[in-house]
Amino acid sequence: MQTPAPFEYERATSVEGAIASLARLGAEARIIAGGHSLLPMMKLRLAMPEHLIDINDLTELAYIRELSEEVRIGALTRHVDLQRSAVLARHFPVFADAERVIADPVVRNRGTLGGSLCQADAAEDLSAVCAAVGAQVVIGHSAGERVVPMSEFHLGPYMTEVGDGEMVTEVRIPLRRGGGSAHEKVERRAGDWAIAAASVAVWMDGGTIADAGVALSAVGPTTIELTRAQDLLRGSTPADELFAQVSQIASEDCSPSADGRGPVDYKRHLAGVLAARALRTAIARALAQEV
Length: 291
Ligand SMILES: Cc1cc2nc3c(=O)[nH]c(=O)nc-3n(C[C@H](O)[C@H](O)[C@H](O)COP(=O)(O)OP(=O)(O)OC[C@H]3O[C@@H](n4cnc5c(N)ncnc54)[C@H](O)[C@@H]3O)c2cc1C
Hints:
The chain has 291 residues and is α+β, with helices and mostly antiparallel strands. The protein has 3 domains: 8-54, Uridine Diphospho-n-acetylenolpyruvylglucosamine Reductase, domain 2 (2-Layer Sandwich), CATH 3.30.43; 62-174, Uridine Diphospho-n-acetylenolpyruvylglucosamine Reductase, domain 3 (2-Layer Sandwich); 179-290, CO dehydrogenase flavoprotein, C-terminal domain (Enolase-like, domain 1, 2-Layer Sandwich), CATH 3.30.390.50. The chain contains 12 helices and 14 strands. It has helices at 15-25, 38-43, 79-84, 86-91, 94-100, 105-110, 113-119, 125-132, 150-153, 227-233, 240-253, 264-290, and strands spanning 8-11, 29-32, 51-54, 64-66, 70-74, 136-141, 144-149, 154-156, 159-160, 167-174, 179-187, 194-205, 208-217, 224-225. Strands 4-5-10-6-7 form a 5-stranded antiparallel sheet. Strand 2 (29-32), helix 2 (38-43) and strand 3 form a beta-alpha-beta unit. Helix 10 packs antiparallel against helix 11 (240-253) and helix 11 (240-253) crosses helix 12 (264-290). It is globular and about 55 Å long. The protein binds flavin-adenine dinucleotide. Flavin-adenine dinucleotide binds at residues 30-38, 75, 102-103, 107, 111-112, 114-116, 118-119, 124-126, 162, 167-168, 193.
């Protein structure tokens, strides 16, 4: 099936207007942002929304702002702008690492941060990135907004905290001293989804890891936050033994399925290798910033 089911279409002219339409239309309404995930699903009739609310004119949702204590990114910020952002390159290079290997320029010119997180596909790279850096997701509704940690945003495959009458407006990432981050991914061919990917963020205090975020893509039903690895890393000193332990935890704590991208054992092995590799780079970047 290559033709979407019939739907009504509305072009939002304000965030308030989009939220009002979502509230009025209820469960059968969907936001469309870049459309690179939703339209393929509609063509396959895996999604059949009765109403589409197009937010592409809401340029007030497309920004990357550095404040004193956090970086704020609008939900409509495109992949290409995340890839090229000097603010993110300075504070969270994990974004540019991931964006370089997300799809191709056509998708990156159009796809958005909000759409990536709301799609809640386990293989989505930016969900792991946002989990690792400890992002907070801002969800707007008719009475205001609520803020949900990324670790609680995904409720399951293709399911999020966003309810009827709500939309994601912004992602906030706390700025902390001594930070470094990195994303590592293996794909079958350029532009493909991950076989496995790992995002790591660390915050160093001298030679010690004060805090860490570690998340995996494509090796479970949702993005996997490796809490056991995070606990181990907090208070530790970088060493080969530590990297090996994190690698082992990543292999053990993921739950991949066998598919065209590879068997379970291979994906577990890959998750471990990529987690350790991203950890090394994140630490090296954090230490380089401190000098
Ligand atoms: C060929 C191809 C390869 C790809 N490869 C990768 C890859 O390697 N890695 C990767 O991470 N991604 C990949 N993608 C996905 C791409 O990153 C998409 O752009 C992204 O998943 C969705 O962003 P979008 O803006 O297009 O969202 P849309 O398709 O417009 O929307 C996706 C979902 O999010 C909802 N939504 C969108 N914005 C909001 C909002 N602000 N509030 C509430 N709900 C919202 C929609 O209703 C829909 O349910 C690929 C896509 C394609 C077509």
